[in-house]
Amino acid sequence: MIRTPMVPRPDWQGIVEREGLIWHTADGAPYWNEAACYRFTAAEIGEIEAATAELYRLFLAAGEAIVADAGLLRRFGIPRPFHDAIRTAWDAEPPALNFGRFDLGYDGAGPPKLFEFNCDTPTALLEAAVIQWSWKEQCFPHLDQYNGLHDALVAKWRDLTPHLPATLHFAHAAEEAGEDAVTTAYLRDTAEAAGIATAPVLIDAIGWHHQRRCFVDGEDAAIAAIFKLYPWEWLANEAFADVLLESLSRGTLWLEPVWKMIWSNKGVLAVLWDLFPDHPNLLPASFAIPDGDAVAKPLLSREGANVSIRRAGEIVAETPGDYGEEGYVYQAIYPLPEAAPGCFPVIGSWIVDGAPAGIGIREDGLITGNTARFVPHVIEG
Fold it and tell me: Nearest Cα to 34, choosing from 56, 50, 16, 54?
């Protein structure tokens, strides 16, 4: 795994905008960073792919353990009324993309290590599936890239078509950066490529129709199925949580399913280590504060918020945010390679329908947050 400096394409901003990535610059610096690329060997990609498949197997076992333990559901901070809904959905396996992004540490010398699993509201998807492939085709047409994301998503939507109503709604929250809007729009495109009729709706525009006992969009149309890029833990703590549960019992299809709350919670890291101690793809993790060095992660944080790195009892790096009251999990430190001064790469390894589908790479400082930059990759040899 080698980082190579590159000369960005002329008018790269216009190119990626035409491909849908309107959020390509953050704080005056490129978020999409094609001034460099990562070069992998086929053997390295094979190791990442195998680790991704193995981690999915471990998460299935962890899910079984969590839904069977009311104490763990409470420890995860999941509201009690949602415990039965999670168990029911886990056992019933309702239709789902079953997609997500494993964030991995990898230096090419040892096995990939799991940092966390973003499987409820994963972003950096368009960049991984489309933008870096287009870049590769233009800049390195003779090389390969580990990237089957787009085709896998379209194929999975096609599999889901018989289980969907006439219209599938796609929802996200309004946010200034537009990252959620870009991700949701791309997923709508993949659904429509599979022949599914879709409709957009902002989360704040969704209402509950008391007479019809269903959620409706801004046009007062009933929502029978909805993909939402909005965290389940936020939905479960909204004022309408009781009617949300009613909608589940009445058959409203929510993508992804409510059981994703247990996999997206950082508490799963401690459960995994308890179940599979010393597994080569896991880092030691616990709910208890360890004596040695560790990374403290809030159970419900997003984009690296409120994460701290602790060495010899001292905090050497931390990020701000609004999380932490729900509790923390403590994970052993993995020394990320410094591929360039101040650039520490984290590999986002994607699954679709539970199968490995490609990778994207983000660079940041010691803690990967919302200031990370996306860097494309190729395969050599």
Answer: 16
Query: Tokens representing 303?
Result: 């984009």
CA distance 330 to 313: 13
What is the C-alpha separation between 361 and 101, in angstroms, rounded?
11
Q: Which residue has the higher pLDDT, 178 or 71?
A: 71
For the segment 311-354, what is each residue's pLDDT rounded down to a tens digit? 887 888 888 888 878 889 999 999 999 999 989 999 999 999 99
Place of tokens 């999670």: 86
Residue count of the chain = 381
Rounded CA gap, 297 and 72, in Å?
A: 17
Residues near 135 by Cβ (< 8 Å), separated by ≥ 6?
A: 9, 34, 376
**Residue 149 token pair:** 């994301």
What gap in Å lies between CA 224 and CA 212, rounded to an integer? 12
What are the backbone dihedrals phi and psi of residue 114, each rounded to the nearest 5 degrees, phi first? -75, 130
What one-character DSSP code corresponds to residue 211?
T
Instruction: Give pLDDT, residue 333.
Output: 94
d(CA 334, CA 17): 35
Query: ∠ CA 370-305-171 to the nearest 5 degrees?
Result: 65
DSSP state of 131: I
CB 335 within 8 A of CB 106: no
Extract the tokens encoding 161. Answer: 């078509």
pTM of structure? 0.96
**The one-letter amino acid at 347:** I
Q: What is the pLDDT of residue 320?
A: 82
Closest of 57, 42, 87 to residue 262, by C-alpha: 87
Q: What is the pLDDT of residues 142-172, one digit of tens each?
A: 999 999 999 999 999 999 999 999 999 999 9
How many other C-beta atoms can be found within 10 angstroms of the C-beta atom of residue 80?
9
Count the Cβ atoms, other than its own, within 10 Å of residue 17. Answer: 13
Tokens describing residue 271: 């459960």
Q: Please, where are the H alpha helices in the chain?
A: 12-18, 42-67, 70-75, 83-92, 125-126, 132-139, 149-160, 179-193, 232-235, 241-249, 260-264, 267-275
Helix (H) / strand (E) containing 357: strand 355-364
DSSP label at residue 199: E
The span from the CA of 373 to the CA of 203, in Å, is: 27
